[in-house]
Amino acid sequence: MKGIRVPNGFSALICLVGLFGIQGVWADTLIFDNSNYTGYILTPPSYTEFLDYGLTNGGRISKFVFGYSSPSAVSVLVRFYDGTYRDDPGYEIRQFSMTVPGTGDFVSTLEYVIPEQDRFDLPAGYFGYSFEFSNSDSGIALATGGAGIKRYYWVYDEWIGDFMPADLGENWNFYFQVYTAPPINEVTCDIEGYKFNDSNANHVWDSQEPAMPGWELFLDINGDGAFQSTEPNAVTDPNGFYRFENLASPANYRVREIQKAGWTQTLPGSAENFQYVIKTDPNHVYGPYNFGNTTFVPKYSGGDGSAANPYKISAVADWELLTNTPADWSKNFILVNDIDLGGDSLPLVGTGTTPFTGTFEGNNYVFSNKSSGLFGILGSGGMIRNLGMENIQVVGGGPMAGTLCGINEGGTIRGCFVTGSSGRVSVFGAGGYTGGLCGHNRGSISECYTTIPVSGTGELYGFGGLCGKNEGTISRCYATGNISGFLYLGGLCGINEGTLQASYATGQVSSPWGWYIGGLCGQNLGQIQDCRATGGVEGYEDVGGLCGWNDGGTIHNGYAIGTVAGYSNLGGLCGKKNGGTIGDSFWDMKTSGRTTSSGGDGKTTVEMKTRATFADAGWDFTTIWRICDGTNYPRLQWEPRPVGDFGCPEGVELADLRVMAEDWMATGASVADLAPTPPDGKVNLQDFSVLAGQWMVGVD
Fold first, then answer.
1. Mean of per-residue pLDDT scores for the chain
2. Is 279 contained in some domain?
3. Do 582 and 610 touch, CB atoms closer than 8 A?
4. What is the DSSP string of 21-38?
């Protein structure tokens, strides 16, 4: 820069921006109207630019070189400032003054060597120098044309740039010359950041959240996740700031915090095991790498929601928290004891916007006395298992109702059950799909059962003891409750468009003025395999012991024995058939009161209790079915025997009483030792009381 005139009393600010390949940068020929001035010289405005231009602001200042022409002493006051607040004395870093006696006319250069204890290194980032000059200690201004300082520059320990004296012209001309030290093959870097109280645990340092001083951070050199005394560490200052300086580079560093009791780390979170992994290059400052913590407040009754440590549900408050926390509906939960919900109608877990996609392990415990269902929508990937519900009452208007869930949208339900003398599902209005367990199933339901009634009034359709409509898979399930409503009623499901496999229903199904009524399902458009129905059915039209209307579906290896009553299209197995296939399936003509059916083969009661009837049709009595030949209808092998049923025939009856009589008052192991639990090795009145309470249970 040349020929810049600076008015009297003005502070000159010269910003020197380095260019690629330049080793020295200076301002040339600043013309002052007087000789007593303050000037500022700045390095390039950011650390990044130093890297871009291949320059560095590193180096140690050791001396001040200048030339002057004066018959008297020259006084220089030097101040060194932090760059961000370089013009604010409150942020002054270093200040010193020097006086050089007069030596006559201009001498090429004079040096002021800064004492060793006053030498200092240049920091990264913005910084600057302030100089005040006068021609004497008293600071008397020079007269126009008088003597004055001619030039100066800083000298670094590491490097001194070329200095070529120039034609100074008039002796009041004031020359600035500053050299920026070239790269000196630095092999270090810095890492910095802040520690803050992430009070809302959102992983972001919000404006209202305070810094956290006094926290220790360390470089995990050996990668074991724990601080060792030999590893570098830093403590956050009052502003929460930390810095690791002069680190060997290039290298990989892991920055971690030393945990404190009562706090949970939120940033950087679980990624990379709560640490930052930084690959460094020389001459960089890396950051900010911030750490956030929040005070630990346990959610629910324990756990963290992971698969290994699910949230624990042990009280009504836990369940209420879950119903009101959609953010947790993808987490893992476990019920750790029975919970009486006291009739509260809490919101459902899982909505159309946010279905439940986590895992809920019931642990064979029971929710009881709730006046609505538990889950709204179980989403794809979600699972509910081993959960019991007792005396749950779902009463109200609208479709898609169930004690466990309204809709299973691709999830898995396994090992769940619904019982209780006061439990029921009763709805009214218009729409469809109501079940004792689930309103609409599009996922998988297995090893579940219900014993409660399901009913509806109005223009509702699709009622079933287990589900209203099935478009998924139902296997190894049963329902014993009675079903009543208008259209599409079934003991297990109202409408089947999926697969019913190895399942059964025993409840009565009734709709005096309705259509499509079946002991197992009202309408079948899917597949029914290895299923049975024993309850009576009543409807107006399209009424069948197993299926009211087989609408293009398939039925294999099924049977029905319940009474069939109605006005039109009545069948012992199926009321109406519209395409599809019905094969190797049977009904009892005597117990059903029907000699005809739209599909299947009618048999006498004796034939229905004869193993050969079914074995000759290819039924599997090795892995799927069992039968007390000559005394009972076939049962599924997975069906549990009732307490007191010691063997064939099925159910608790005279044969079982005879078994107990044979071991009466005996001591030692006996199948008739029913009580207490564990057995006491005696068959006595206590055992007989249990048998009497089970009398005729399971008898066909």
1. 76
2. yes
3. no
4. T---B----EEESSS--E
Contact (CB, 8 A) for 106 and 100: no
Q: How many CB atoms lie within 10 A of CB 635?
A: 18
Compute CA distances 214 → 195, 246, 272, whole Å. 9, 22, 24
What's the confidence (pLDDT) of residue 696?
84
pLDDT tens digits for 629-653?
Answer: 999 999 999 998 888 888 888 888 8
Residue type at 45 in one-letter notation:
P
Give 544's contacts (C-beta < 8 A, 6+ positions apart). 517, 518, 519, 537, 560, 564, 570, 571, 572, 573, 574, 575, 576, 597, 598
Do residues 587 and 600 touch, judged by C-beta distance below 8 A?
yes
Quote the domain boundaries for residue 698. Answer: 641-700
Are 464 and 492 in contact, with CB atoms under 8 Å apart?
yes
- Percent of the chain scored above 90 by pLDDT? 41
Q: How far apart are CA 416 and CA 437, in angstroms?
A: 9
User: What gap in Å lies between CA 474 and CA 488, rounded to an integer?
Assistant: 18
Q: What's the pTM value of the predicted model, to 2 decimals?
A: 0.61
Burial 327-339 (b: 16+ CB within 10 A, else e): ebbbbbbbbbeeb
Which of 234, 261, 295 is the last residue before a domain boundary? 295
Tell me how crowded residue 144 is: count the other CB atoms within 10 A of its CB: 10
Can you tell me the distance from the alpha carbon of 71 to that of 635, in angstroms, rounded to the nearest whole number?
A: 124
DSSP labels, 390-431:
ES-EEEEESSSB-SSEEEESS-EEES-EEE-TT-EEEEEEEE
494 touches 461 (CB < 8 A): yes
Model confidence at 51, pLDDT cuts 50, 70, 90, reads: very low
Distance CA 691, CA 529 (A): 34
SS3 assignment, position 316: helix
CA pair distance 509, 186, nearest whole angstrom:
87
DSSP-H helix ranges across 4-98: 47-53
What is the dihedral angle through the alpha carbons of 647, 648, 649, 655, rounded to the nearest 10 degrees?
A: -60
**Does 251 map to a domain?**
yes
With a cut of 50, say whether residue 56 has pLDDT above it.
no
215/247 same-domain check: yes
337 vs 331: CA distance, rounded Å: 19
> Using CA atoms in the order 61, 110, 177, 91, what is the torsion angle rounded to 10 degrees?
40
Assign residue 243 the CATH number of its domain: 2.60.40.10
Q: What is the pLDDT of residue 58?
A: 38
Exposed/middle/buried for 244, CB within 10 Å: 0-12, 13-18, 19+? buried
Please state at what angle helix 654-662 crosses helix 685-693, rounded to 10 degrees: 170
* Residue 336 to residue 355: CA distance in whole angstroms: 23
Q: Which two tokens stand for residue 144?
A: 């126009």
pLDDT of 362-387, one tens digit each?
999 999 988 888 999 999 999 999 99
**220 and 133 part of one domain:** no
- What's the full length of the chain, in residues? 700
Task: Tell me which of 117, 143, 176 is where a domain ends.
Answer: 176
What six digits make up the tokens of 526? 């899917």
Q: CA distances (Å), 330 to each of 309, 381, 412, 644, in order?
A: 14, 9, 14, 43
Query: Backbone dihedral region of 281: left (phi > 0), alpha (psi from -120 to 50 degrees) or beta?
Result: beta
Cβ atoms 414, 448 nearer than 8 A: yes
Residues 252 and 109 in one domain: no
Tokens of 183: 């790269």
Q: Is residue 378 part of a domain?
A: no
The amino acid at residue 302 is G
* DSSP string of 183-227, one letter each residue: P----EEEEEEEEEE-TT-SSS--TTSPB-TT-EEEE-TTSSSS-
Residue 307: both structure tokens together: 């698969």
Find, among 319, 353, 356, the residue nearest to 335 by Cα. 319
Q: What whole-number distance in Å separates Cα of residue 208 and Cα of residue 130? A: 37
